[in-house]
Structures are given as structure tokens and as C-alpha cells.
Write a sequence for this structure.
């Protein structure tokens, strides 16, 4: 039969892998064992719904056998097997091109975790073998098939012989090289230690034929003779089969949790923090949860799927149970095992399951607690967590009409004008001077830009701390919170700053004094600003834009950037610093030269736009105007 070609992208990936980008070749065994275990799991599911099939525990196992003479390693399972079509689909294509694109950008990343990430697990066999043959018979099928491949050049599928359903994978090991002794994978001790290292908790027995030395019974009267040994060959189960979440926390080290995280492909980073929960009560469950260290590359996209693995008494019933996590904690990875859940429950039923809801609620509290203690006791770690996932918490405050703000408000951090580092709302409020009524904030694209905003001048001058909001979601989140510990939030650009200051009184007088000029300017800027007035907040700058009402200029920017946005507009106010020299020029122009007034008004308005990070409406006209006053 003619050789079939792998799909193009599979071929590239295979070549990359075989050409030893991967240093940790030993993980191939873990991959094959976990596939075998998955295949037995599938039999288990089948048995739940198929009356003809009974799941007898003894019949299900994985076996590893090494043949030193033939230099082959065979992994056999009594799982569900594959049909011809399945062989074609599962072993003929490796990874989707999307993940492949990601792969080539990240080749330096820790390699073995990426293999698993994109389901190229099976192909890791080619790291140690130059030929792989798979004999398989699907449950319920009459025929068996043999799939064979020598690597990137393609594969063949032919009818074969196999009595019982299941799969047998034989690796023909590569020839030894100077750097790599592939014979190693034929050694009992080596195989045993790999199983222990990576696959100890696999729920089915992993069996091996082992050789043991046993003392030969000494005949009576020969007590003082040297003890004699003989070799016996027997089958032994190598894995303990106790899942890590059932073990005692005291038995486990940080490395064990890290290993589990990687084994499960929860992420390709290291976990920042883990929680091992053993809950007994009205609901009982074991869970291991992780807060990842890094933002997954697809985290803020539609492709990202939240969820925890869900086990019922040690049997995986769902890969990503979304109902266990609220959206604002969607970054949490891990698993939950509960005896209180029924096994053959459908996805739809599960959604309404009371036990599941109770577990979800419980988990939510535990996660919140863990984040709070991270914030309290390991501030640096918390800040790095917040860098990775803080945006999601802020989304959480904002979404669902603010329903979850009480859970989340104490987990928020914003950069403080005083400390130039992230502070909590509680830290801010607890050091507010007595005469400060509001929590002030300023918005902009970066801390550096906000610091230069003229609007911050007065508040900063009063010695009040300002929160710098640099994320587009920030202000929406604060608007949703409305207040924290009875202190309302106030944008430093807001019409009323609530300062009761001399500046505020004086600006009223200034407004009256210049009413005519401001009215003229307002006409000149018709449709652009709602009001022109004397500023109380400007100290050294001549001009700035502020807004009236609920919608700030920053929010307008965010909303306008969204797809299908309407032309939402903030009510803008042009504020002028009447103490500034520029204002004197403006006044003079107003008295005698209307063209000049129009020119100045336009220039000042455009400057204010630029300061706000908004585009000038007509750049050519703007530069022409500047040239006009230069000559
Ligand atoms: P993944 O396990 O992430 O799906 P793999 O490359 O490890 O990716 O395996 C590809 C697919 O091949 C599996 O999803 C499964 O359908 C099939 N497969 C691999 N090994 C076995 C096996 N021992 N028994 C049955 N099916 C298998
Ligand atoms: Mg796999």
C-alpha cells in the first residue's frame, strides 16, 4: 500500500520535533501512558451508557514491555481502540495551524509542556524511535488495523490482527549516539522511575514484567551457608494509582504541585500559587487550584475557555467545567473531585446541579481568600499576579451590573501619585486627610502622561493622592463601584472637584468677569465644546479640556474604539487659566481683532485636544495656524 503523507503542517512540526529541539526526550512515555489512560477512560464512559458493556476493573490496565534484543518498547492498553477512520484522523494530523504559528514564535519556551499543549503527544514517540507501529482494534469493531510510520515521510495503514479491543504501540528505538543512549529506555529501573516521576497517579494499573532476586530457601542444617538468590520474573504494578489530590498536603512538596500542573498542561508557565483544598461537610470535595504566573497567550480572546477539570470519585467527567468558576476568576486552573456528584450526569443537568453550585460558591470564596492573603502576605507576588490578571478582576467589577463588586473591590490595585506604585483602595482611603472628601483619580494612557496632565495640578497641589488609571476598563470599574468606604470617586477633570477652595470661589468671579469673551469663544467652538470657562484647577498650564456629566473624555475614547460604537460624546468643557500670560493675549485680541481671537481659540482648543491624547481635528489647519503666529 502506498504511503500517505502527513498533512503539511504536521510534517513541519514533526520535523522540528524530531530534529531534537526537545531536550527532554523521556516525556514520550508519559504521553503514551496518558493516551492509554484516556482510552480506558473512554471505555469507562461507554460502560455507563452501554448495557452490554460491563466495566470490570481487573480487565483494564496499561502494560509496558521492553524487548532488549529487538530494541523495542511496547505500550499496550485495553482501552477503546481506534477505527481506521480514527487512526487516520488522530494520527495523521498533528496540530492546527494556529497553534503551529504560536509554536514557531515560542520555540525557546520550555519545550515539553508545549508538546502536550497542542495535542502532539503521540508524536513525541519519534523523539526516541525511528519507527512506530500501532496495532489497534476499536471496541465493537470486527477488524484491527496497523498504522506504521518512520517519521516525517508519511505513514501507512493496513489491516492487522488483534483479538481484544485496545491498542498496542511499539517503538523501534533509534540507534544509540554519542549523546544519547536510547537503550536506556529498555532498562527496567529507568522505565520504573519514569512511571513514578510522571504517571504515578494514573488511575489504572501500569504493569511491567520485572525481574526480582529472591533468596532460595536453604535446606535444614545448612544455616550458616551463604544465602543463595534466584531471579524470578513477575508482573508488577508500578504506579501507586493514588491521585495527588487524595494525598495529604504534608506528603507533598511544591515540586509535586508544579509537576502536576505541567503534567496536566494547565499552563506552560510555573504556577504562581497553588491551593490544595480538602473540604468535608454538607458537600465534600478535593481540589487543587492554581493561579498561573503568566497570562496565557489567548487569555483576553474569545478562544480562551475557562473551567476546571471535574472528577467524580476519581473519574474524570469533564475537561473544562465552566460552571465551577466565575468569569472574574477565569484564570484559575486545576481540578475538583467530588463523591457527591453522580457519574452519568449530562452537561445540561450538571449546570443545574445543586452540589455543583455549592462547590462553585465554596471555591469562589477560597480563591478570594487566597488572593487576599497573597495581597497581605506576599505583596510582590500579588502585584505580579495583578499585572497578569488584574484586568479580569476589573472586568468583573464592571460586568453583571456590578453584582460582584463587593467580592472584588478589595483586590483592586491602582498606581498612586504619591507612592508611584500600586495601592489598594483601602490603603488610599485610610490615609486620606480629614478635609479630603473624595477619592481622586486621573486617566490616561500611561502614568508618565497622566503625571503631565494639567488637570491634576490643583488636586496634587492640595497634597491629595491621585489614583492613576491607565487601563481602559479602569474608569468604568470605578463608576460601577461609585464609592469605597463611603468615599465617592472623582475624576480630577470633573466639573466640581469638591475642594471648597479659594480657587473655586475665584473661578466663579473670573467667569462673571469674562462672560462675554467665553460666550464668543463658545460660539467659535460650536459643536465641539459645551462650555468655555475659567479654570480652578490649572496652575501653570494655559488650557485643558474637562467634561461634565457621567461620561468622561477617556470613556468616550474607549467606547468609540469599540466595534459598532455609536458616536457617543462626552460633554466637553474648555477651561482656561486666567492667570496665564496667554490669557492676556487672548483678551487683548478679543478687544480689537476678531480674526486673531478665532485663531487663538482654535489653537488653544487643539492644544487641549492634544493634551488629552485626542487627535487634532485638522492637522494642516493647526500647523498653518502656528505658522501664522510665528511670522
Ligand atoms: P491528545 O492526547 O492530546 O489528544 P495525542 O497526540 O496524544 O493528543 O493523541 C492523539 C489522539 O490519538 C488522541 O486524542 C486519541 O484519540 C488517539 N489515541 C492516541 N493514543 C491512543 C490509544 N492508546 N488508544 C486510543 N486512542 C489513542
Ligand atoms: Mg495525548
Amino acid at each position: 500500500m502506498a504511503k500517505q503523507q502527513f498533512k503539511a503542517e504536521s510534517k513541519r512540526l514533526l520535523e522540528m520535533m524530531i530534529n531534537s529541539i526537545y531536550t527532554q526526550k523521556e516525556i514520550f512515555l508519559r504521553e503514551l501512558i496518558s493516551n492509554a489512560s484516556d482510552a480506558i477512560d473512554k471505555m469507562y464512559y461507554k460502560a455507563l451508557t452501554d448495557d452490554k458493556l460491563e466495566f470490570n476493573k481487573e480487565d483494564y490496565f496499561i502494560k509496558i514491555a521492553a524487548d532488549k534484543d529487538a530494541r523495542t518498547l511496547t505500550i499496550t492498553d485495553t482501552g477503546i481502540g481506534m477505527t481506521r477512520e480514527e487512526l487516520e484522523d488522530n494520527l495523521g494530523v498533528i496540530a492546527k495551524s494556529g497553534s503551529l504559528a504560536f509554536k514557531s514564535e515560542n520555540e525557546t519556551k520550555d519545550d515539553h509542556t508545549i508538546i502536550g499543549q497542542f495535542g502532539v503527544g503521540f508524536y513525541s514517540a519519534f523523539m526516541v524511535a525511528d519507527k512506530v507501529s500501532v496495532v489497534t482494534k476499536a471496541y465493537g469493531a470486527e477488524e484491527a488495523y496497523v498504522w506504521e510510520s518512520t517519521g516525517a515521510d508519511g505513514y501507512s495503514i493496513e489491516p492487522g490482527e488483534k483479538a481484544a479491543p485496545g491498542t498496542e504501540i511499539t517503538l523501534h528505538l533509534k540507534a544509540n549516539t554519542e549523546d544519547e543512549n536510547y537503550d536506556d529506555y529498555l532498562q527496567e529501573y529507568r522505565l520504573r522511575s519514569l512511571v513514578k516521576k510522571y504517571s504515578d497517579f494514573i488511575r489504572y494499573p501500569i504493569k511491567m514484567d520485572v525481574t526480582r532476586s529472591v533468596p532460595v530457601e536453604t535446606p535444614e542444617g545448612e544455616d550458616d551457608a551463604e544465602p543463595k538468590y534466584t531471579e524470578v520474573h513477575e508482573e508488577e504494578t508500578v504506579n501507586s494509582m493514588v491521585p495527588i489530590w487524595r494525598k495529604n498536603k504534608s506528603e507533598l512538596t511544591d515540586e509535586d504541585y508544579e509537576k502536576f500542573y505541567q503534567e496536566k498542561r494547565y499552563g506552560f508557565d510555573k504556577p504562581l500559587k497553588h491551593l490544595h483544598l480538602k473540604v468535608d461537610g454538607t458537600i465534600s470535595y478535593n481540589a487543587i487550584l492554581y493561579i498561573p504566573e503568566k497570562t496565557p497567550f489567548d487569555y483576553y480572546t474569545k478562544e480562551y475557555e475557562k473551567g476546571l477539570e471535574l472528577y467524580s470519585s476519581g473519574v474524570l467527567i469533564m475537561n473544562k467545567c465552566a460552571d465551577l468558576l466565575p468569569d472574574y476568576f477565569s484564570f484559575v486552573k486545576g481540578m475538583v473531585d467530588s463523591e457527591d456528584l453522580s457519574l452519568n450526569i449530562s452537561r445540561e443537568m450538571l449546570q443545574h446541579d445543586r452540589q455543583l453550585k455549592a462547590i462553585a460558591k465554596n471555591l469562589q470564596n477560597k480563591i478570594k481568600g487566597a488572593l487576599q492573603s497573597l495581597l497581605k502576605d506576599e505583596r510582590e507576588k500579588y502585584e505580579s499576579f495583578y499585572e497578569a490578571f488584574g484586568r479580569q478582576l476589573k472586568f468583573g467589577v464592571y460586568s453583571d451590573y456590578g453584582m460582584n463588586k463587593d467580592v472584588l473591590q478589595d483586590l483592586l490595585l491602582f498606581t498612586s501619585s504619591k507612592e508611584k506604585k500600586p495601592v489598594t483602595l483601602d490603603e488610599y482611603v485610610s490615609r486620606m486627610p480629614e478635609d479630603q472628601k473624595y477619592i481622586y483619580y486621573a486617566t490616561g494612557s500611561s502614568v508618565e502622561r497622566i503625571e503631565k496632565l494639567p488637570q491634576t495640578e490643583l488636586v496634587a497641589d492640595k497634597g491629595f493622592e491621585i489614583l492613576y488609571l491607565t487601563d481602559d476598563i479602569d474608569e468604568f470599574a470605578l463608576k460601577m463601584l461609585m464609592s469605597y468606604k463611603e468615599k465617592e470617586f472623582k475624576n480630577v477633570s470633573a466639573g466640581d472637584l469638591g475642594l471648597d477652595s479659594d480657587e473655586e470661589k475665584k473661578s466663579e468671579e473670573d467667569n462673571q468677569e469674562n462672560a462675554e469673551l467665553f460666550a464668543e469663544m463658545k460660539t467659535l467652538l460650536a459643536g465641539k465644546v459645551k462650555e468655555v470657562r475659567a479654570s480652578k484647577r490649572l496652575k501653570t498650564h494655559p488650557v485643558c479640556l474637562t467634561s461634565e456629566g457621567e461620561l468622561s473624555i477617556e470613556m468616550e475614547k474607549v467606547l468609540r474604539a469599540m466595534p459598532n460604537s455609536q458616536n457617543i460624546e462626552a460633554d466637553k468643557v474648555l477651561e482656561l487659566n486666567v492667570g496665564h500670560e496667554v490669557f492676556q493675549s487672548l483678551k487683548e485680541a478679543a478687544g480689537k481683532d476678531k480674526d486673531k481671537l478665532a485663531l487663538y481659540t482654535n489653537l488653544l482648543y487643539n492644544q487641549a485636544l492634544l493634551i488629552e491624547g485626542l487627535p487634532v481635528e485638522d492637522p494642516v489647519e493647526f500647523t498653518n495656524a502656528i505658522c501664522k503666529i510665528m511670522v
